[in-house]
Design brief:
The chain has a domain of 150 residues: Immunoglobulin-like (Sandwich). It contains three helices and eight strands. The protein is an alpha+beta fold. An eight-stranded antiparallel sheet has the order 5-4-7-8-1-2-3-6, with no helix packed on it. A hairpin with a 4-residue loop joins β2 and β3.
Length: 269
């Protein structure tokens, strides 16, 4: 090979050398242009879900759900707001913080509001054909609940059963919509002094010669709105006869007055 090249004229050898150099240069240039073309193609086929830099923060406003407009929203605008405020004028982060504050503190304040209920009251109205009426007050004490009842329109000199019933519903003219005795623990019926009794077993009213009765009792098996057999929203029933503490409900007869236990106005106590 060397002899052949030595035998060739110098001009021919030099021309061959520069021809090879030219081919290499052309290859380098072509490869460079191919890379540029591939990069532009990738940018053109970028998925629609990939946000462009100029449109950062665009889309729906988290405060109001409206589209703030990608074209008018600056790229530096934080996510969660409309940016140009053309949609709602609200800041999404501020709205979220306000909602969280309301939710958290609403629960907190609501829990304490229930704890502050120290008194309840039931206004007794006569059932159809009767004249018995009155007021029964319930006050939270250290050991339970104090019950104070003032009732009139009773049979003079007679005893009348008084119970807390399951529902605060006085829609039935005979009081039966109040349901049965309030007894969430499922105990047998009994007197207020019995260890096992209904939560609603309050005993008997004793009427005087004019058919009026004043009754006070403290019980430890109920609460106004606590965890132990809460009575708020329940019913109070006065019966035509005395509670003999027999089963299942004391044989107290018809319902002559009905009331609903509600939150008492502290200023009226």
């Amino acid at each position: 090979m060397a002899n052949e090249m030595n035998n060739q004229p110098k001009g021919v050898v030099m021309n061959g050398f520069f021809s090879r150099i030219g081919v290499l240069v052309m290859l380098v240039v072509c490869v460079g242009w191919a890379g540029v073309a591939l990069g532009e193609g990738a940018a053109a086929t970028q998925p629609a879900t990939q946000p462009a830099v100029e449109a950062e923060g665009s889309g729906k406003c988290e405060a109001c759900g409206k589209d703030g407009g990608a074209a008018t929203q600056p790229a530096s605008q934080p996510a969660g707001s409309c940016g140009t405020k053309k949609s709602c004028g609200k800041d999404g982060d501020a709205v979220k913080k306000a909602a969280h504050h309301h939710k958290h503190h609403g629960k907190h304040h609501g829990k304490h509001a229930w704890k502050k209920i120290d008194a309840a009251v039931a206004v007794l109205h006569p059932t159809e054909g009767n004249t018995t009426r009155g007021v029964v007050r319930f006050t939270r004490t250290e050991n339970g609940v104090k019950v104070v009842a003032d009732v009139e329109g009773l049979t003079p000199g007679a005893m009348h059963a008084i119970h807390i019933h399951e529902f605060g519903d006085g829609t039935a003219s005979n009081g039966t919509s109040a349901g049965g005795h309030y007894n969430p623990a499922g105990h047998a019926h009994g007197a207020p002094a019995d260890a096992e009794r209904h939560a609603g077993d309050l005993g008997n009213l004793q009427a005087d010669g004019e058919g009026r009765a004043h009754y006070e009792l403290e019980v430890d098996n109920i609460s106004i709105c606590g965890h132990k057999s809460p009575i708020l929203g329940r019913g109070v029933i006065v019966h035509a006869k005395a509670d003999d503490f027999g089963q299942p409900t004391g044989n107290a007869g018809a319902r002559i007055a009905c009331g609903v236990i509600g939150i008492a106005n502290p200023a009226a106590q």
